[in-house]
Amino acid sequence: LGRVLLESQAANESNARTYPRKLPVAIDRASGSYITDVDGRVYIDFLSGAGVLALGHNHPELIATVQEQLTRLTHGLDFPTPVREEFKRRQLSMLPESIRDDMKIHFCGPTGGDGVEAAVKLCKKATGRGGVIAFQGSYHGSSHAAMSLTSETQPKEGLHNLLPGVHFAPFAYCHRCPLNLKPDSCGTRCGQLLTNTLRDTHGGVPKPAAIILELVQGEGGSIPAPVEFVREIAREAKAQDIPLIVDEVQTGCGRTGTWFAFEQYGIEPDVIIASKGLSGMGLPVSIILYNKRLDTWTPGSHIGTFRGNNLAFASGVTYLDVLEREHLLDNVRTRGEQLLDGLRAAALGSSIVDDVRGLGLMIGVEMRGFGGATSSEVALRLQRAALRRGLILEIGGREDCVVRLLPPLNITEHTAGEALAVITAALRSVEE
Ligand code: PMP
Questions:
Q1: Which residue from 275, 286, 359 has its CB within 8 A of the most atoms of ligand 1, so it is best to mutate?
Q2: Under a CB-based contact definition with an 8 Å cutoff, are residues 90 and 276 in contact?
Q3: How many angstroms is it from 357 CA to the middle of ligand 1?
Q4: Does the keyword Transferase apply (predicted)?
Q5: Cβ–ligand 1 contact at 248 (below 6 Å)
Q6: Looking at this predicted complex, what is its ipTM?
Q7: What's the pLDDT band for 411 if we cut at 50, 70, 90?
Q8: 100 with 92: CB under 8 angstroms?
Q9: Which residue's alpha carbon is at the smallest distance from atom 12 of ligand 1?
Q10: 89 and 36, same structural domain?
Q11: For a substitution probing ligand 1, which of 17, 249, 283 has the most ligand atoms within 8 Å of its CB?
Q12: Do 79 and 30 sit in the same domain of this protein?
């Protein structure tokens, strides 16, 4: 049946779809960290709907909440409802105290890309400026503006008139330093380079409306930004009154071991974008949290129909209840360490692993070319070998050479151990 469904999909859906090409699985049902395909095979799910399913599949408390909300109200536009107000209150309460009272919230629409659009428009209007600084290796989405801010060139091929005025600054990808420096002696040159670019008014980059940054590049290859790099950017942005947008679509909602990743960097961003993990169960919703001083919006400045998903608000509140009650952020840190340690052990003596890195449960294994195969071919082989052994993994990175781990945030020690055993066996089989 799986083959039939995959063929049926290929016959009438656009070629732009990505996941089923590399992961030929037709899903019947799922529970927790496990997916069952239509032929009855069970897989550990380390993709989690692209980092969305914070509490895994079909969490009973989230289901109960949504079922209850279904009978009350599903879509509420932007009318106030008790659950919308509660969701908002809880989201704002998750912010560090130092900025909480300065921030407002805006509901942006169903997708992470919608949040990116809103954030950039907000900063453009507030500053009256046009350009945006993004980073090499960034991913911000597929809409016109979000793709313009995404550095990967392949999806942009043949697309004219994307957003003008986007400058891609070097990202501190220390494993492959864009400036060919060594992390212990570089003095964070990449960060300084951006500072110099911003200060040099003759350098061809006019003062931008915003800087947009992923604290851990996700699609770019699970690359945590070093603290000093981020602080340098935040410092200079503040000094020059350039709003700093942190795109926490993937890193947010607990994925890195704090509610937002920026908390681990000691910075105070002006705009935070959140989406994927907000509802805990994959219901579409995105928000921006932004400093009130940027609020020059008037009625109609940024609207849209799907900004009132009360099902997502309800599950989002229950997700936070579970997160707090079960100390889920501790679990993210502990399971993250378990996976990183296990992967580093498996990589010892392996000729195909180039780097193991991550923050919380956003982990990447960068592969190396081997026996005539390129690094991306090796990554694909590892992904396939893991799939045959019952583990679903994602691939990302500059040259598609990073195998990415994005498990649910409530993953157990046992399941993490199972996944490590699969990856270890898969590594050996690829090397044979
Ligand atoms: N920003 C980041 C950092 C992302 O990882 C993604 C999705 N992978 C997006 C934005 C876009 O989100 P969406 O696909 O929901 O539009």
A1: 275
A2: no
A3: 21
A4: yes
A5: no
A6: 0.99
A7: very high
A8: yes
A9: 112
A10: no
A11: 249
A12: no
DSSP characters over 308-375: -BHHHHHHHHHHHHHHHHTTHHHHHHHHHHHHHHHHHHHHTT-SSEEEEEEETTEEEEEE--BTTB-H
Q: What is the mean pLDDT of residues 349-369?
A: 97
Q: What is the mean pLDDT of residues 188-213?
A: 88
Q: Are residues 92 and 107 both part of a single domain?
A: yes
Task: Say what the pLDDT of residue 205 is.
Answer: 86
Calculate how far, in angstroms, residue 362's C-alpha sits from the geometric centre of ligand 1.
Answer: 14
- Establish whether residue 116 lines the binding site of ligand 1, counting it when its CB lies within 6 angstroms of any ligand atom: yes
95, 207: one domain: yes
> Binning pLDDT at 50, 70 and 90, where does residue 149 land?
very high
Range of the domain at 411: 2-58+327-431
Task: Kindly report the protein residue whose alpha carbon is nearest to atom 5 of ligand 1.
Answer: 250
d(CA 113, ligand 1 centre) in Å: 6
Tell me the average pLDDT across 4-15: 89
Among 292, 325, 358, residue at a domain's last position: 325
User: What type of residue sits at position 47?
Assistant: L
Take atom 11 of ligand 1 and give the residue whose Cα is closest.
141
SS3 270: coil
| Model-wide pTM > 0.90 | yes
Question: Do 31 and 54 fall into the same domain?
Answer: yes
